[in-house]
From TrEMBL:
Every Phosphotyrosine protein phosphatase I domain range: 4-110
Cited Gene3D superfamilies: 3.40.50.2300
Protein name (record): Protein tyrosine phosphatase
InterPro entries associated with the record: Ptyr_pPase (IPR023485), Ptyr_pPase_sf (IPR036196), UCP029416_PTP (IPR016919)
Source organism phylogeny: Bacteria, Pseudomonadati, Verrucomicrobiota, Opitutia, Opitutales
Length: 110
């Protein structure tokens, strides 16, 4: 049986979404990737990534709005979940990791 695929999105794919992706590296239950919704993102969101994902987590409402605006035709009935995590953290910041775990525990079996 294949693992559920999680896609984490923030603006530039520098701090928040890569941290979330890193939390699931070698996870026994989930597979994860991350991308950014901005043109200058380290890894830019594509229709292919939307297609790959089973669950899509956006750090802020504006990311969900951009996904719906640009990739609405590819979303289908995939859940688009807003975590409400502001751009106040650096990569692998301990506070960010705690916040991600707290927010994700409502949606995933961690």
């Amino acid at each position: 049986m294949s693992k559920p695929k999680l896609l984490f999105l923030c603006s530039r794919n520098q701090w928040r979404s890569p941290t979330a992706e890193a939390l699931f590296q070698n996870h026994p239950r989930y597979e994860a990737r991350s991308a950014g919704t901005e043109n200058g993102a380290r890894v830019k969101l594509t229709a292919g990534l939307i297609g790959w994902a089973d669950l899509i987590f956006c750090m802020e409402k504006k990311h969900a709005a951009r996904v719906q605006e640009r990739f609405g035709d590819f979303l289908g009935d995939k859940p688009l979940i807003v975590l409400r995590i502001p751009d106040d953290y650096r990569f692998m910041d301990a506070e960010l990791i705690d916040l991600l775990r707290t927010e994700l525990s409502a949606h995933l079996a961690l």
